[in-house]
Amino acid sequence: MSIAAARVIVCSPGRNFVTLKIETSDGLTGVGDATLNGRELAVAAYLNEHVVPLLIGRDPARIEDTWQYLYKGAYWRRGPVTMTAIAAVDTALWDIKGKVAGLPVYQLLGGRSRSGVSVYGHANGATVDDLLSSVASFVSRGYRAVRVQAAIPEISEMYGVSAAAIYEPASAAIPAESVWSTEHYLAHLPGVLARVRAEFGPGLRLLHDVHHRLTPIEAARLGKSLEPYALTWLEDPVPAELPDGYRLIRQHTTTPLAVGEVFNSIWDGERLIREQLIDYIRATVVHAGGITHLRRIFDLAALHHVRTGSHGATDLSPICMSAALHLDLAVPNFGLQEYMPHAPETDEVFPHGYRYADGYLHPSEEPGLGVDIDEALAAKYPYRPASLPVSRLADGTLHDW
Ligand SMILES: [Mg+2]
User: Is 120 a catalytic residue?
Assistant: First the structure.
């Protein structure tokens, strides 16, 4: 059997997605997510111009060799565009291998290590009362873990607190801009978490995402101030280009730390993991080189008491979520999976067999990943340019996302 064709499909059923579909000479197909939020067409071009021609005629069973060929063969290693393209190929080949074997992919990864994949949802609100209602609605639907983001009265526009169901935000072709104030944020947030914890008691797992907006000592102060509310994790407190920042935070607080949704290879997090500077690694299938490479990252993490907590916002397609669930179910050091339901039109374009029940996601039991793309339907949703917003300080200085 050989790879007979590979197609890149760009569509926008509610938001933009890039998908790779590989066909074999035996008529099997496999799909991989290649979505890089806000830079979608760069990956589509990388695949079309530089990867698809290399795939034709290759043996689809040789997943590891194909990964090494695309990674080492490019000479220019790593980077989000390259690694997202490699991830799409890798994911599609695992899908095909599962179909050949007649097994769901998690069985090929060693079988299930747990009965279901624990997920957390996104609660937010324009006021603390709205936030409490949002948390309550997740609890009523069985969630045992909730990410809590609150609007800050002094800041007019903020990420992660939109009432719109479909987040991560990527709307205007030219990035929208908002104003950020670290001072107001650090003053406001502990009181919000205090109210949430008081309302819901000690059993509910609470998380909060800083989105890289603090310096290490500011994050250390925040971590300390949140200790009474026992977060499961504080996410992306500072940009991770400099691992020493996490060491500084660690020296001051026992609030657990999570980072990695923008990581694209094991080398982005190797030191953070090896020196136990973080507690959860949030790398994803789609941006970190596929199932093959993410398994490698998770195995390194397992050696160092770091658990998984993969990014799972709606900026990755149901194909990535399907692949993530197979890996989550199999690895020994699974921690928690982010989960945001997609828009109905996205679910229709990407028919999938995973299901949510009582705080858990369960992957499909079909052979392969249990997900596909309806290409005819996808064609009805053409690409629309969209960018993530940027934030600035009050004086106009561009700040971290
Ligand atoms: Mg995040």
Answer: no
